[in-house]
């Protein structure tokens, strides 16, 4: 089966180029000052302009206010919003209507009920869901997976992405267990916290293409 990949937390032209050249379907840019992957609005504009139209540009936000969203969207460098905070279904619907952008809502998973609650709350308003571990100190890039069997055989009524603790070494097993058709990686392709590795990006994307 075809599996799509998103490389998140990119912050340099070189690693962005590696992601695009390696076949990433999406590239992700972080707007969250507490994250080591946070980038400025100017850098977002610069990097976003280098992405071909065949690759989606995703902006990661955590309970962002309208002013911050407007500032980032004004760069023209974001095609989809990824909401990583405690945004309510009402806020998701509001942002979709206000920005005209598709929204991917992140669901934090520790037990099966988290998946069920997330689907019930957001399937009617989000365009995609992302499932990631619930125990991260910061949103995204914490390098720990959750129990993938929670998603085994589960029907999700809209496209979804598997995230959390994925690496070149385990992504094939993660897809086998969960049936994911899309995967997201950040810390799993880093040489140190917040620093992406071109070699690991290439290795991850090669593994995904081989699935």
**Averaging pLDDT over every residue, what do you get?**
95
CATH class: Alpha Beta
Rg over C-alpha atoms, rounded to the nearest angstrom: 16 Å
Report the strand count.
Answer: 10
- In the CATH hierarchy, the third-tier topology is known as TIM Barrel
Order of helices and strands, N to C?
A: EHEHEHEHEHEEHEEEH
Helical proportion, percent range: 25-40%
First CA to last CA: what distance?
7 Å
Q: In terms of structural class, how would the helical and strand content be classed?
A: alpha/beta
Structural shape: globular
Strand order, sheet with most strands? 7-6-5-4-3-2-1-8
If classified by CATH, what would the architecture be?
Alpha-Beta Barrel
* Assembly state: single chain
Biggest β-sheet: count, sense, barrel? Answer: 8 strands, parallel
Strand fraction: 15-25%
Count of helical stretches: 7
Domain count, please report it. Answer: 1
- The CATH superfamily is known as Aldolase class I
Q: Could you walk me through the main structural features you see in this protein, from its secondary elements to its overall organization?
A:
The structure is a single chain. The protein has 211 residues and is α/β, with parallel strands linked by helices. The protein has a single domain, classed as Aldolase class I (TIM Barrel), CATH 3.20.20.70. It is built from 7 helices and 10 strands. The strands form 2 sheets. The protein has an 8-stranded parallel sheet. Helix 1 packs parallel to helix 7. The longest helix is centred in the C-terminal third of the chain and has 12 residues. The mean pLDDT is 95.
């Amino acid at each position: 089966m075809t599996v799509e990949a998103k490389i998140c937390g990119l912050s340099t032209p070189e690693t962005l180029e590696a992601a695009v050249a390696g076949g990433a379907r999406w590239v992700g840019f972080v707007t969250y000052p507490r994250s080591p992957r946070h980038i400025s609005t100017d850098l977002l504009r610069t990097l976003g302009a280098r992405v071909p139209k065949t690759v989606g540009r995703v902006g990661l936000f955590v309970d962002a206010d309208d002013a911050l969203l407007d500032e980032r969207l004004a760069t023209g460098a974001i095609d989809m919003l990824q909401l990583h905070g405690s945004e309510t279904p009402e806020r998701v619907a509001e942002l979709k209507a206000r920005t005209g952008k598709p929204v991917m809502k992140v669901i934090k998973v520790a037990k099966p009920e988290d998946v069920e609650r997330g689907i019930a709350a957001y399937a009617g308003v989000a365009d995609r869901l992302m499932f990631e571990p619930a125990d991260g100190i910061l949103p995204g890039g914490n390098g720990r997976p959750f129990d993938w069997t929670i998603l085994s055989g589960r029907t999700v009524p809209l496209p979804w992405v598997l995230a959390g603790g994925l690496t070149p070494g385990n992504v094939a097993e993660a897809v086998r267990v969960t049936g994911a058709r899309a995967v997201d990686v950040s810390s799993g392709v880093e040489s140190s916290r917040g620093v992406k590795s071109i070699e690991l990006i290439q290795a991850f994307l090669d593994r995904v293409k081989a699935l």
